[in-house]
Specification:
Layout (H helix, E strand, L loop, with lengths): L2 H19 L5 H26 L2 E3 L4 E3 L4 H27 L5 H23 L3 H19 L5 H36 L8 H6 L6 H19 L7 H8 L2 H30 L3 H21 L5 H22 L2 H32 L10 H4 L1 H14 L6 H16 L4 H24 L14 H15 L3 H14 L2
Antiparallel strand pairs: 1-2
Helix pairs in contact: 1-2, 1-4, 2-3, 2-4, 3-4, 3-10, 3-13, 4-5, 4-10, 5-6, 5-10, 6-8, 6-9, 8-10, 8-11, 9-12, 10-12, 10-13, 11-12, 11-17, 12-13, 13-15, 13-16, 13-18, 13-19, 15-17, 15-18, 16-18
Length: 484
């Protein structure tokens, strides 16, 4: 039985089991167990693909290659560490009355189902199934964002549902147009939505239809990425949902949506033989970086602040892939990896900090270094990492993106430097008092799970100093596949 069966089957089974047992005291451990099983299966799958090369499975409906296999492992890993963080965090939420037994059952079940939908979107070869999986991910996260059932969380969930529903409808229309273009070449009896089939005949696809299709696909999946001006759901969803949900939204779901955009970009570039897709991505990416950076300077809620940081970084990743070429694509893939690791670590520490203070208002969170030194140091190190300080991996990827932009797109370089400078100052001036200010806060009843924080930051540090050969080979192979 192929490892992919377990990668997809374990979280699906977990969602069913936790739908019945998710309110029990041991449910948090079961959630961690299923997440760990998914991670182990993903590692086995990765090892097989590295050894044997790309593989088509189950009537060619699933396809694993160098572009998605390590993203599968990254998704499973962050899902596992977030489940570990979630154990004491959700216990505190339950003790405080914010989570009832039915809500805990819903939370744990939807957490596993969310992991399943993301893994399906990453591994399927069928662009129609990709759309279905992204829609399913939207529905599961709507339930996760609204799990507190407060007026603010319900409003954020509805906003998320409506905006992303409209966006995913645009992606559906783009998928239909893609099918129309492929049918003219392959005929109605062929597998016209299989990415491997489309990749072979991409130069024969009608350029006019593909241009329109990519525009709708970029708008649709770009809504899930959080690109400006389609971003307004993201700060509310991050601020009002449980912090573990914020971690997987920023660290994982945005990457999955970006992966869908990249698959479509490869087809568009092959059909048009000109960089229209890249130009659109550079435009949306740069706009996102600039707007998000200046919004950072106005935030008073700590989770909203870091949600705008996610928009900024996804804009930078989009800009990198828009430039294309081996170096920019390599930098974009590296940035996807380190952003997932560091941003989830930041949300872990923010979650503990807000629980200690009983508020998400930045001005009311002070002295974390005194209340719990590990939380304080975790937050300040995570912030320095996400702001691109050396020697963390974010610095390495941003350095590659900026130097490539200076050479290939010099007009954009001043906007990037200004935006990154504004973001650096805006975040740092707010975080320093949170960590080192005076406070009267007392420790939490349940010790926080901080091991995931320092594991993530340690991996980001390693990637800033040394990229293991097998990971470097993946980046190089995936960068070549993306072309540009």
């Amino acid at each position: 039985m192929h490892a992919l069966f377990f990668v997809l089957g374990i979280p699906l089974l977990g969602s069913v089991v936790l739908a019945f047992t998710g309110h029990r005291d041991f449910a948090r451990d079961i959630n961690v167990g299923f997440s760990f099983g998914t991670f182990v299966a993903a590692c086995v799958l990765t090892a097989r693909i590295v050894a044997d090369g790309p593989v088509l499975l189950w009537d060619k409906q699933f396809f694993i290659d160098p572009l998605n296999v390590f993203l599968v492992t990254l998704t499973a890993f962050v899902g596992f560490t977030t489940a570990i963080f979630s154990r004491p965090y959700m216990q505190v939420e339950q003790d405080r009355g914010k989570m009832t037994s039915p809500r805990m059952r819903l939370y744990h079940s939807m957490y596993q189902l969310f992991s399943f939908t993301m893994l399906v979107a990453l591994t399927t070869n069928n662009l129609g199934i990709t759309w279905v999986a992204m829609e399913a991910a939207t529905l599961t996260t709507v339930l996760l964002v609204s799990v507190y059932r407060t007026a603010a969380s319900l409003e954020a969930a509805w906003k998320y549902f409506i905006l992303c529903g409209v966006g995913i409808a645009q992606a559906l229309f783009g998928t239909v147009l893609l099918y129309m273009a492929a049918e003219k070449v392959l005929g109605p009896e062929s597998a016209t939505l299989l990415w491997t089939s489309l990749d072979v005949i991409k130069t024969q696809l009608d350029p006019a239809i593909i241009t329109l299709a990519f525009a709708f696909l970029l708008i649709g999946y770009g809504t899930k990425v959080g690109l400006v001006p389609l971003h307004s759901w993201l700060p509310d969803a991050h601020a009002e949902g449980p912090t573990p949900v914020s971690a997987v939204l920023s660290g994982l779901l945005l990457n999955v949506a970006m992966y869908a955009v990249l698959r479509c970009k490869v087809l568009t570039d092959g059909s048009l033989q000109r960089p229209l897709a890249g130009q659109l991505m550079m435009g949306f990416g740069l706009l996102s970086v600039v707007v998000a950076s200046f919004f950072l300077s106005r935030q008073k809620d700590v989770k909203r602040m870091f949600s705008y940081s996610s928009i900024e970084h996804m804009g930078l990743i989009t800009f990198a892939f828009g430039m294309g070429g081996p170096v920019a694509n390599f930098a974009g893939l590296l940035h996807m990896t380190v952003h997932s690791l560091v941003k989830s670590a930041v949300f872990f520490t923010v979650g503990h900090a807000t629980q200690k203070a009983g508020t998400q208002v930045i001005s009311e969170i002070r002295g974390l270094i005194k209340v719990n030194p590990t939380v304080g140091w975790g937050l300040i190190l995570g912030v320095m990492a996400i702001l691109g300080m050396p020697p963390f991996g974010v610095f390495a990827s941003e350095f590659l993106i900026l130097t490539t932009a200076m050479r290939e797109q010099p007009w954009a370089t001043p906007f990037l430097f200004l935006s990154l400078g504004v973001a650096f100052a805006s975040v740092l001036v707010r975080v320093l008092p949170m960590v080192f200010g005076e406070t009267s806060l007392k420790p939490l009843a349940h010790p926080p799970a901080l091991l995931p924080v320092f594991v993530h930051l340690g991996l980001a540090l390693v990637l800033g100093l040394y990229i293991p050969p097998y990971l470097n080979i993946w980046y190089v192979q995936a960068a070549r596949m993306l072309g540009g």
